[in-house]
Amino acid sequence: MKLSPRDASAYFRSPDPKRPGLLIHGDDAMRVAARRQEVLSALLGPNAEEEMRLTRLPANELRKDTAALIDAVKAQGFFPGARAVHVESATDGLSQALSAALEDWQEGDAQIVVTAGLLTARSSLRKLFEGHRTAYAAAIYNDPPGRDEVERMIADAGLKDVPRDATDALLALSRDLPPGDFRQTVEKLALFKVGDSTPVTADEVALIAPRSSEAALDDALEIVASGRTSELGPVLRRLYAQGVNPVTLCIGAVRHFRQLHAAASDPGGASAGVAKLRPPVFGPRRDKLMRQAQHWGMHRLETGLTILTDTDLQLRSASSAPAHAVMERALIRLAMLARR
């Protein structure tokens, strides 16, 4: 039977031990592995591997000895509790062996959990599980986690007092990070709050979030928009060391100043303008954008966008001027404009 994404999320948290098997497939190996770990943990509980209640069968070994699957499913362990057999990196070549194991499965046998890469609708392995009366198949897509899933990760990590603004900041972060990195960030935040009974804040989420070239770019643009010319040099050197080129920096600056212009020109004021930005902006970055939009005003931002547009054209032209120098000059002009 085929599980919808919503039903799959619920089943991963609470799998049915009376079902013979589950197929998890998708093109993102990290997401598939996270779901496999979730379902095996829910099914077997802790210490499953130490108690030999989990058997792992790589697909390449199973091709050499297809009988090993039925042997592992039927084997009885020394320790009580549910058992499972994990078939890794399965392909259509194992469909016959898996079909025989599913048909021979009886209650009390080890549950068969199969992971695979992206399977098309014509895949015999996918058809086997989706067409089976009692086994399940779940496709894992590359969609970011929803609010319910983020809130569940927060609860699993042991974070108790997480207001809406901090949850929104984590939700925004989940769209930018791979699932494994995001889960580690939530766990890191939980460790950060050990012994601290105060509510989690959006500032703390920003502090814990992994630093990237995009974060350093935001720092550079904040310095420019605030007119702090003396701080610009070190930040630019860090950006260039991370491999950010002048054209990328110019594109980021244009995007930032367009956001400021949209906020400053909103009839309801900068606060209403920032609230309408898409994708939404939360936490400290939202406050910074609001302050910058109010400080610059619509007309000065138009002048700044003109400087950036001219710079972009020069960077993309056949000009002999050094690109780094051209971009740095434009940023200094903008920073000086902010101080007027």
From TrEMBL:
<comment type="similarity">
    <text>Belongs to the DNA polymerase HolA subunit family.</text>
</comment>
<protein>
    <recommendedName>
        <fullName>DNA-directed DNA polymerase</fullName>
        <ecNumber>2.7.7.7</ecNumber>
    </recommendedName>
</protein>
<dbReference type="GO" id="GO:0003887">
    <property type="term" value="F:DNA-directed DNA polymerase activity"/>
</dbReference>
<keyword id="KW-0808">Transferase</keyword>
<dbReference type="GO" id="GO:0006261">
    <property type="term" value="P:DNA-templated DNA replication"/>
</dbReference>
<dbReference type="GO" id="GO:0003677">
    <property type="term" value="F:DNA binding"/>
</dbReference>
<keyword id="KW-0239">DNA-directed DNA polymerase</keyword>
<keyword id="KW-0548">Nucleotidyltransferase</keyword>
<dbReference type="InterPro" id="IPR005790">
    <property type="entry name" value="DNA_polIII_delta"/>
</dbReference>
<keyword id="KW-0235">DNA replication</keyword>
<dbReference type="InterPro" id="IPR008921">
    <property type="entry name" value="DNA_pol3_clamp-load_cplx_C"/>
</dbReference>
<dbReference type="GO" id="GO:0009360">
    <property type="term" value="C:DNA polymerase III complex"/>
</dbReference>
<dbReference type="InterPro" id="IPR027417">
    <property type="entry name" value="P-loop_NTPase"/>
</dbReference>
